[in-house]
Design a protein that fits this description.
36% of the residues lie in helices and 25% in strands. It contains 14 helices and 17 strands. Helix 4 packs parallel to helix 5 and helix 5 runs parallel beside helix 10. The termini are far apart. The protein binds L-homoserine. L-homoserine binds next to helix 7. It is an enzyme of class 1 (oxidoreductase).
Length: 434
C-alpha cells in the first residue's frame, strides 16, 4: 500500500521532535498504522539544528502544504490563533485531515474548526494540545466513556510546575527559573501564557468539553496565575501540611460547571501534590471508575511529539472509515452537547487559605472570627506566627471549610476594613481532591 503523506507546518521544538520520532520509529509506526507514514513536505521559516530533514522538501509557505494535492494529513505545529486557524481551515476545505498540538487554537476556535471538519468528513486530532505526552484526551474520550465525569483537576502547565518546584525545592528566583524553562523549550512564545494561567486555561477548556460534553468556552474560564505567589505563603502552606500547585479544576455542579485555573493548596500527601518539575498530572473522577490519575511529561520535544505521532497513527487507521462512525471530536455526539452554563467564579465553591497581616493588638483574632462566623464560614485550622520585625505585623493564617466564593469575597472586604488588619488579605483556594 502507498505511504500516507504528511506535511509538517512548523519545525520548532515539537515539529523537530515529530520529524525525528517519525524517522526513528518508522518501522514500528508502520506496523501499528498498517501503512508507512512519509513526511512529504515541511513548511518552516528556518531549519532546526536538532532535526536532520535530509531530502524532504522544505518551503517557507505554510499554505503550500494545505494546497499540496499529494498531502493527506497536515500537521499544524506553528502555534498561535490567527495564522494557525487560517491554515487549518484551508487544509480542511481542501479535504485534508489535521493533527495539531495547538491548545490555544482548539480552545478558542475549536467549535468552528470541528463544525467545518464534520462538514468535510475529515478528522482533526489534538492529543498533543493537552498535557504533552500524556494520552489524556484519548483516555477521557474513549477509556472513560462509560462514566458520568464529576470533576477533573490537573497540573497542566509544565513551565509553571517547573517554576513552582524549583522555587520550593531550591529557593530559586522566579525569573531565573522561567529563563531556564524557555531555554529548554517548555515555555510558550509569550511566557505570560504559562505564568498567568492562560495556557492552562486553554487546556482545561478542552478537557472540560470532552469530560462533560459541552462546547468549548475558553472565554468563560476563570484564570489566575502564579506570578503573585510569595515564598512566605509557600512556607506557611507547607507548615499546614499542604503544597501549592497551579491547578486547573473543572467540576460538575447542580447549577453549572466550574472552570477555573489558579494556585491551589493540595494536601501534601496526595500523589498529585508530589508531581514536580515539568511533569503534568490530571486526576479525573468518574462515577463508575472513581478517581484516576494520568501522569507524564507535559512539555518538551519528544514527549509532545509522542502525542502528535500517536494522533497520526489514529488518523491513518480511521481515514478510510465512515465519518459518521468515528470518535466525535469532543467525545459526545455534536448534536448532544449540553448547554448547562459555566459558572462565574463568585458562584464556584472551594475551601480557602487566608493570610491576614494583623496589628499586634488584643481582640483582632476575635473580630476576624466574628466576620467569618457572621457569614457562615467555618474555620478548619488557624495558625498565628510571631510578630515580624520589619513591620511589627502578625501573620494570621486560616484555612476555611468549603464555601461559595461570593461569601469569602464579602468576608475579605470586611476583614480588610478592620482597623486591626493591614493591607490586602491573601487568598488561595484549597482543594482536598478526594
Ligand atoms: N508551555 C507549555 C507548558 C507547553 O509549559 O506546559 C506544553 O503545552
Amino acid at each position: 500500500m502507498n505511504p500516507v503523506k504528511v506535511g509538517i507546518c512548523g519545525l520548532g521544538t515539537v515539529g523537530g521532535g515529530t520529524f525525528n520520532v517519525l524517522k526513528r520509529n518508522a518501522e514500528e509506526i508502520a506496523r501499528r498504522a498498517g501503512r508507512e507514514i512519509e513526511v512529504a513536505q515541511i513548511a518552516a521559516r528556518r531549519p532546526n539544528p536538532k532535526c536532520e530533514t535530509g531530502e524532504t522538501p522544505l518551503t517557507a509557505d505554510i499554505f503550500a502544504l494545505a494546497d499540496n494535492p499529494e498531502i493527506d494529513i497536515v500537521v499544524e505545529l506553528i502555534g498561535g490563533y490567527t495564522l494557525a486557524r487560517d491554515l487549518v481551515l484551508k487544509a480542511i476545505d481542501n479535504g485534508k485531515h489535521v493533527v495539531t498540538a495547538n491548545k490555544a487554537l482548539i480552545a478558542v476556535h475549536g467549535n468552528e474548526i470541528f463544525a467545518r471538519a464534520r462538514a468535510k468528513g475529515v478528522i482533526v486530532a489534538f492529543e498533543a494540545a493537552v498535557a504533552g505526552g500524556i494520552p489524556v484526551i484519548k483516555a477521557i474520550r474513549e477509556g472513560l466513556a462509560a462514566n458520568r465525569i464529576d470533576w477533573l483537576a490537573g497540573i497542566i502547565n509544565g513551565t509553571g510546575n517547573f517554576i513552582l518546584s524549583e522555587m520550593r525545592e531550591k529557593g530559586r528566583a522566579f525569573a531565573d527559573v522561567l529563563q531556564e524553562a524557555q531555554a529548554l523549550g517548555y515555555a510558550e512564545a509569550d511566557p505570560t501564557f504559562d505564568v498567568e494561567g492562560i495556557d492552562a486555561a486553554h487546556k482545561l477548556t478542552i478537557l472540560a468539553s470532552i469530560a462533560f460534553g459541552i462546547p468549548l468556552q475558553f472565554d468563560k474560564a476563570y484564570t489566575e496565575g502564579i506570578s503573585r505567589l510569595t515564598s512566605a505563603d509557600v512556607g506557611y502552606a507547607e507548615a499546614l501540611g499542604y503544597r501549592i500547585k497551579h491547578l486547573g479544576v473543572a467540576r460538575r455542579t447542580a447549577s453549572g460547571f466550574e472552570l477555573r485555573v489558579h494556585p491551589t493548596l493540595i494536601p501534601a500527601d496526595r500523589l498529585i501534590a508530589n508531581v514536580n518539575g515539568v511533569m503534568n498530572a490530571v486526576m479525573v473522577h468518574g462515577d463508575a471508575v472513581g478517581s484516576t490519575l494520568f501522569y507524564g511529561s507535559g512539555a518538551g520535544m519528544e514527549p509532545t511529539a509522542s502525542a502528535v505521532v500517536a494522533d497520526l497513527v489514529d488518523v491513518v487507521r480511521a481515514m478510510t472509515s465512515d465519518p459518521e462512525n468515528r470518535v466525535p471530536h469532543l467525545a459526545f455526539q455534536p448534536d448532544s452537547l449540553s448547554d448547562h452554563p459555566i459558572l462565574p467564579i463568585d458562584a464556584c465553591e472551594s475551601a480557602y487559605y487566608l493570610r491576614i497581616q494583623a496589628k499586634d493588638h488584643p481582640g483582632v483574632l476575635a473580630q476576624v472570627a466574628t466576620i467569618l462566623s457572621e457569614r457562615g464560614i467555618n474555620i478548619e485550622s488557624i495558625m498565628q506566627k510571631e510578630v515580624e520585625e520589619h513591620d511589627g505585623l502578625v501573620p494570621m493564617i486560616l484555612v476555611t471549610h468549603r464555601v461559595v466564593e461570593a461569601r469569602i469575597d464579602d468576608a475579605i472586604s470586611a476583614l480588610e476594613s478592620l482597623e486591626g488588619v493591614s493591607g490586602k488579605v491573601v487568598r488561595i483556594r484549597v482543594e482536598q481532591l478526594n
